[in-house]
Specification:
This protein is mainly α and about 110 residues long. It contains six helices and no strands. It folds into two domains: about 40 residues, no CATH class; about 60 residues, no CATH class.
């Protein structure tokens, strides 16, 4: 089915999940050979997963460093941090940790 697809975007979208399942089945090497040349375009789905992972990583950094400086965050602080979905904003908060005295000061606007 994927081989007959004319859209490069859709082929890329088929390629990445196929590689995920191939890796789980321990057949990734065989699949990579068969899918060679299919990666000229990036999969929007996989790029979205990567972006979400970067946001989660940045949020984890803020929580870990903030916990070291200020102690364990309470539920409202964690809720506010969870609602931040911009990676760069979370990275700015990670740097701002050095300039504030508590979780409230970190999250002030």
């Amino acid at each position: 089915m994927a081989a007959t697809e004319r859209s490069g975007v859709l082929r890329a979208n088929y390629r990445d999940p196929a590689l995920v399942f191939a890796e789980l089945a321990r057949n990734k090497t065989v699949w990579e050979a068969g899918l060679k040349g299919w990666n000229e375009m990036r999969s929007a789905l996989v790029e979205n997963w990567k972006a979400e992972a970067r946001v989660d990583e940045a949020r984890g950094l803020v929580v870990a460093q903030g916990t070291k400086w200020f102690g364990q965050p309470d539920a409202p602080v964690l809720g506010r941090l969870e609602r931040i979905t911009d990676e760069q904003e979370l990275r700015r908060l990670a740097l701002r940790l050095l300039d504030v005295e508590n979780w409230g000061g970190l999250l002030e606007r």
